[in-house]
Amino acid sequence: MIKLIASDMDGTLLNSKKHLSPSIHDVLKKLKNKDIIFVAISGRDIFSLKEIFKDVEEDIVYASNNGNYITYKNEVIFENYIENNMVEKVAKIIRKKAKHNTIYCAKDAIYSESLIPAIVGRKWNLKVKYTRDIAKVEDKILKITTFGNKKIINRTLEAIRGFNNKLMITKSGSTCFDICNLGGTKKQGVNILQEKFNVGYNETMVFGDHMNDLEMMSSAYYSYAMENAEEEVKKNARFIAGTNDDDGVIKVIKEVAFCEEELNSYSI
């Protein structure tokens, strides 16, 4: 019996216009009635996730910043920060390669050493604070995200590859990559929630589409890559869901999670 469902947002639960399916309200209500925990797990910050679900009254676990900051009913379940000295070391390199394309996500704020993300961030409902030097900000950083074209992404990844054994560095979209504390993956986030709510591998369902969802595929028997997912993610998933523009997540929940519950109710 499925007890926990964790879904990525962009490219997965959200369609290409960054909207939720109108049927999400009924689905979440039914999940709550069946005591199935729903987790919004994303590279997005907590404020962005709450904005997405602002019209939804059902209980949701928010696993923001790739599962490095998890809350449920306003209780902080888990927080995993990058060490300050590592933030400073990475920032020195990023200033040379992608200063104008980088944001630093803390628990209650987002920072950038450029004004550009503050302007562009409005499109994503991000309130970005400008700082001349991130190392001088008295705040703890959960995630660093760099955006840009292929050239910017590749040159920056090449420049910071020496940190691969000290930080979790992964592409989170076709035009961005994330840096988190070592081990700070969505898989870790799901595992923490499984332990907290006493949910097993065979009772967990996950959905994802990009490389920051890759590790998460091994945390659940019901692991679904979207039809529009990266090939590497598809290879590591047990099942394939429809595309994000065809309500792939919603359809699987209805066809698998709900039907399984109904079948179990008839078992002797």
From TrEMBL:
Keywords: Hydrolase. GO terms for cellular component: cytosol. SUPFAM superfamilies: HAD-like. One of its GO terms (molecular function) is magnesium ion binding. The keyword Hydrolase applies. InterPro entries: Cof, HAD-like_sf, HAD-SF_hydro_IIB, HAD_sf. Pfam families: Hydrolase_3 (PF08282). The keyword Hydrolase applies. It comes from the Bacteria. This is Cof-like hydrolase, possibly yhaX.
